[in-house]
Design a protein that fits this description.
By secondary structure, the chain is of the alpha/beta class. It folds into 3 domains: 182 residues, Rossmann fold (3-Layer(aba) Sandwich), CATH 3.40.50; 307 residues, no CATH class; 78 residues, Arc Repressor Mutant, subunit A. The protein is built from 30 helices and 12 strands. A 5-stranded parallel sheet has the order 2-5-6-1-7. The relative contact order is 0.09.
Length: 714
């Protein structure tokens, strides 16, 4: 379409058009079945497999296919290990809360609970056991938490677990159908019985007690009577024919229907009110247990449901750990205790850390960014095949390294600093830069040095954490210590050029260490020794430091014993002897401070001081921002077209000629140079459509090539 044919163009402005493409005809099935092992998916033997997954040949295209395959395999292995560590950390962090939930479900129909609510208070109805699970404000994390709760409940018990989400429960009918479908489907999962017929919500069904099947009949699929009859039949089969003749409290060990409502605040209150009321009416036939996920406060529950419904719930509060505690666990597992995996460098960690604290507060978003960083590190760094491997694997990798790999090693900044440190020995420098065989023989020691740095760093980091917590627990008004989380401490460790040892927080802790008494010092030394005893690396490589701390502990006990003996003695210590004892304690305290100061300076150095740290640390912050942060400039540039059209709109009268408007818009856009006509037309249509949506203009039947102006401003 050209500008000359503007009449046709004006007829189509802001009108939608749809293109209906025919569905592709599926290929005819082959007469002969495929042989076993054939697959339509690509395999690593396919020459285009790595290109299809985004893996490029690095080193200016000189990288061998074997090295490419290793990078891909190492990425999958390393991320699998890191993800397993993260999930384990989250489970440990929430284990206490999960245990409370499991215990609540198991004991929800115990005799004590029933007697308390039903007989002791003389209630005319039985309350539904309800756990109020306070999850926090981040919805994506809540979905992950409730999935873990559901898995935990399904592991070792026969309860039927149902998860209801607001997106699937827009009405009472849909809510009841979701409940029935999930419970009845769980019957097939647990007991592998006959499959149910897939019926729509409007299909009528009836339960056949003897055959465990549904057939068209009297009951709707969303009728609670379907679930009640099915549940009663399962209970009779699992016990005996006279099951329902026994008292209600004797049935506490049977299966329950646990209903997880993940996003309580998003549910329609009227739907929840009717749903809870119906469940309470069937409480004598079906054992319901509710788990309500509340992101805010209990006021949301009180405002959403009337008192008549709240009275039918026997509620208990359960608080899950907040997201910041979970982040502490993740950072400790991935960045501190992970000695062989990939780590975030200074700027990427700063971006992830600040995004978490200042924007979304989402653990799942943090994990997604972390996975992308690990993937890009292996997909873009040819030296990543040397990251986090043991001695035996390292020897086999050396045979894969080409001359281009060795040149890439020599180009790393940390290796250049290492060479500069060897300048007094000119022969050593020459061999490092020219002798490939010598460099290969040196690589195992350099790679092993990275792992040793991480192990020593993790021990020193834990010592610093123990020192901080001990001073905080001391609660002396003379000691003023900032309470920092582990992820904040690690943020200081990689942001400070001198490392965490030179950070103001560390120096402040060491100054306050000189103000503690003997009991606090004894507690500090004992905690450090307990940590060293349980650390395998410390037992083998930090024996000298361990013996020094043990010596401090023995000397402290001797000083304390002197004070105790003087109190029980017939003739107490003189003033001079007491001052001498205090001097001994002061000297010991100063020696302990000097020990920690030297230990921190040696082991909490910045990672950039380690040779070939580029093999392990990911440094590309710009790519992470590009992939995970919003880009307002594109939206602003798009909005500029609407702004230009609006400025011209203010100059028009009641009727706006579309062609004149388009030509004026074109003249402004082409001030800096010619632009393609189709692009101008597309941008014009987009801007006019936005103005029409905002209510500034509308089409008119009086003139086909005109728009009517709807607003007037001075």
């Amino acid at each position: 379409m050209t500008l000359n044919g503007h009449q046709d163009f004006l007829d189509s402005v802001s009108k939608e058009s749809f293109q209906m493409r025919p569905r592709p005809t599926p290929p005819a099935s082959p007469r002969k079945s495929k042989k076993k092992g054939d697959s339509t998916k690509g395999s690593e033997n396919d020459p285009f497999y790595f290109e299809n997954i985004g893996l490029e040949r690095l080193l200016d295209g000189k990288e061998t296919p074997e090295a490419m395959q290793l990078r891909h395999w190492e990425y999958e292995r390393k991320w699998s290990q890191m993800l397993s560590s993260v999930e384990k950390s989250l489970l440990i962090e929430n284990s206490a809360s999960f245990n409370d939930i499991v215990s609540f479900v198991d004991n929800s129909y115990s005799s004590n609970e029933i007697e308390t609510s039903f007989q002791a208070f003389g209630l005319p109805y039985r309350e539904i056991p309800t756990a109020l699970v306070f999850t926090g404000i981040n919805s994506p994390d809540n979905e992950l938490l409730f999935t873990q709760i559901a898995q935990r409940l399904r592991e070792t018990r026969s309860d039927y677990v149902v998860m209801l989400q607001s997106k699937d429960c827009g009405s009472l009918k849909m809510t009841m159908k979701c409940l029935n479908d999930q419970v009845l489907d769980s019957m097939n999962d647990y007991e592998n019985q006959d499959e149910m017929n897939d019926a729509d919500a409007t299909d009528e069904v009836i339960f056949d007690v003897e055959n465990d099947k549904f057939a068209e009949g009297h009951l709707q699929r969303y009728d609670m009577e379907v679930l009640a009859e099915w549940y009663e039949d399962k209970r009779k089969k699992n016990n005996d024919a006279d099951f329902w003749k026994v008292s209600f409290k004797d049935k506490s060990l049977s299966a329950k229907v646990v209903v997880l409502i993940q996003d309580f605040e998003v549910f329609d209150p009227s739907v929840l009110e009717d749903f809870i009321y119906i469940c309470s009416q069937y409480q004598d036939r079906v054992k319901f247990v509710f788990l309500l996920g509340i992101a805010t406060t209990i006021n949301a529950l009180q405002q959403a449901l009337p008192s008549s419904i709240l009275n039918s719930l026997r509620m208990k509060k359960i608080q899950l750990q907040n997201s910041e505690r979970c982040l502490d666990r993740i950072v400790t597992a991935v960045q501190v205790e992970n000695h062989t995996g990939i780590k975030l460098g200074k700027m990427p960690y700063k971006y992830l850390h600040e995004t978490f604290l200042l924007y979304n507060y989402s653990v799942s978003s943090y994990i997604s960014k972390l996975q992308y960083a690990v993937m890009h590190h292996f997909f873009s760094n040819p030296l990543s095949i040397l990251a986090g491997i043991d001695d035996q694997e390292l020897l086999s990798r050396l045979s894969i390294l080409s001359e281009d790999h060795l040149e890439a090693i020599r180009m790393q900044k940390s290796f250049m600093k290492y060479v500069e440190a060897q300048l007094p020995d000119s022969d050593e420098v020459r061999r490092l830069l020219e002798d490939n065989a010598y460099l290969e023989s040196l690589l195992p020691r350099l790679i092993k040095g990275i792992e040793q740095y991480h192990k020593k760093f993790s021990i020193a980091f834990e010592f610093l954490w123990i020192l901080q917590q001990t001073l905080i627990d001391y609660k002396d008004p003379k000691i003023n210590v900032d309470r920092k989380t582990k992820h904040s401490l690690y943020y200081l460790a990689i942001q400070e050029d001198g490392g965490l040892c030179d950070a103001y927080h560390t120096q402040k802790l060491l100054v306050n260490l000189k103000k503690i008494d003997s009991s606090c010092l004894s507690d500090l030394l004992q905690k450090c020794l307990e940590f060293l005893y349980t650390n395998h690396y410390a037992n083998s490589c930090l024996t000298q430091e361990m013996s020094e701390i043990e010596n401090f502990s023995v000397r402290l006990r001797d000083i304390e014993q002197t004070f105790i003996s003087s109190k029980n003695a017939l003739f107490p210590l003189t003033h001079g002897e007491e001052e001498s004892t205090n001097t001994l304690y002061t000297i010991l305290l100063e020696q302990v401070r000097e020990f920690f100061d030297a230990f921190f300076k040696y082991n909490l150095k910045h990672y950039s001081t380690v040779t070939l740290h580029e093999v392990v640390y990911y440094e590309n912050e710009k790519l992470l921002k590009h992939m995970f942060s919003a880009h307002p400039r594109a939206a602003t540039q798009k909005a500029l077209d609407t702004c230009i059209l609006y400025k011209m709109y203010l100059e028009f009268g009641k009727m706006i000629n579309m062609y004149d408007w388009l030509m004026a818009f074109k003249s402004i856009l082409e001030r800096d140079g010619p632009i393609d006509e189709k692009e101008i037309q597309a941008r014009f249509i987009s801007g006019v459509t936005e103005l029409q949506t905002l209510g500034f203009v509308k089409s008119t039947s009086r003139k086909a090539d005109h728009f009517q102006r709807l607003t007037w401003a001075r």
